[in-house]
Design goal:
The protein has 517 residues and is α+β, with helices and mostly antiparallel strands. It is built from 15 helices and 24 strands. A hairpin with a 2-residue loop joins strand 6 and strand 7. Bound molecules: ligand LFPHGCPZ. It is an enzyme of class 3 (hydrolase).
Length: 517
Amino acid sequence: MLSNSNIRKPLSFFVGMLVSLIVIYVLYSSFLINKLTLVGERLFLDLENTISQSYNVVDRLNNLGFSQCSKANLFNMRKEQFNSNDIKDIGFFKDGFLVCTTGAGILEKPIKESEPNLIINGYSIWVNKALKTFESKISGVLIQKGNYNVVLSFEGILKEHDKNIQYQIVARKNGQISHLYGVNNLFQNNANSTEVVTSSGFLSHSIELCGNQGNVCLAVSQRNYIEFNDVPSLFIFLVIIIMFFSGVSSIHLFELYYQYLRSTKRRVRRGIKNNRFIPYYQAIIELKSGKVIGCELLARFEDNMGALYPDEFIPVVSDLNKSWEMTECLINKSLEDFKLLTSKDGPFYLSINIFPKDVNNGNILKSSNLLGDINKNLQICFEITEDEELNFSGLDKVLNLLGENNIKVSIDDFGTGYSNLSQLKLLKIDTLKIDKSFIDEVETGSIRSTLIPNIVAIANKLNANIIAEGVENQLQVDELMKMNIEFCQGWHYVKALPIKDFKTYLLVNSKFDFFKR
Ligand SMILES: Nc1nc2c(ncn2[C@@H]2O[C@H](COP(=O)(O)O[C@H]3[C@@H](O)[C@H](n4cnc5c(=O)[nH]c(N)nc54)O[C@@H]3COP(=O)(O)O)[C@@H](O)[C@H]2O)c(=O)[nH]1
């Protein structure tokens, strides 16, 4: 599905938009939670100050020791109220009756003290108490101790804070919640201590926290986007713009990722890991008789994205320094392919391409583990290309390996690279493979083809066989035979085949056979 760009691009655009929407939501939510936490903590500090100031006022007045609602007593009560922002009224009690208040003065009819809603730290608290001195039209929070009470309003504290935020102040005693001020039921009883507890819904966020003793708690909540109340369209416009750009960038990012997924480098790396290399075999023919005498192993690669040509993957394998891994995988597979080969006509010549770098770095020595117990009808030949100079520092060991395992050596693409005669002599070369570029147009006497007799002369000096590569027609066959070339391979005879087809080819064109399993 992803290989179809008509689907891939809209899909990645949509995914990019969705991801950016989620990111916007998460970022905006965490911004709101942080903001609410800051507001809540500051508010709670103000709240605690207000309450403790009220306690102090009540304590200070009690300490003055008035027993009557005298002028001096009222004066002191009014002075305390004047000095406070949050105390709206102060009352004086005598024998359980409210006898005067700063707001109403001396009451004609004293008011009987009722049961408090809560008692915290010895202070009685009335919640949302309708004040009789104001004909029950005003309610407030009352705090009383000894002969004095104060009427508190939290409005002052809350007024200073953000209008877009909702608050609830509650008192909590024995697990029972009493609403003190603000929006009812905002506090969900999630907080137990001064630790801020946050909760998020899809469209709103809230925090809760309580005082040291957990008696007074605060809930603060804000609906998402409320800040944009004045300009909701601006907010929506901004979100859409961000989503659009994310969608477009995600198309580009995904295309880059898709290219990476399909890159030859990644496919080859995975191919090495998963043994994706398949041996194909191209027959080597004796020109005189037309008989098959062996084959060259040629690597093929296929994965779920399709096939890669050797010219694409061979350089990448080399760049990734995975040449030996690939060769090892192919040797193992081909030894298995030819395990049951039988011969009535001499050994079967199996030519395996080896990267020059694996000769230079000694990786080739690892092949002795693979070649220990192979079919005796096989004559293994390591084919080394001329495209890289051989470094002979480890030659002794390489020669030992070749000797011990009866492995022959051929030089591939001869005439195009770095080989020199003394090196070839040292390696005891068995075969020179003449590069296809010499064979092309041999029938018309191309300039390059006129060099073939020189290669034949070198091979004679080395006592080596010659295989002509890339033979494509009978005219070339005729010319090569005239030049005393004995062996060849090329599409004129057969292309490289997978083992199943190559077996059939062998059965028809040679005396080699396979035991039936
Ligand atoms: N180190 C390794 N190199 C390998 C291995 N397998 C392949 N190769 C190298 O990759 C190059 C390309 O190989 P490939 O595409 O397999 O081509 C080979 C033949 O298919 C092609 N050929 C053979 N006959 C003809 C022909 O008549 N006409 C024509 N146009 N092409 C023909 O030539 C390639 C054989 O090359 P060579 O190895 O030089 O004999 C190539 O350089 C391979 O060497 C591997 O396992 N390891």
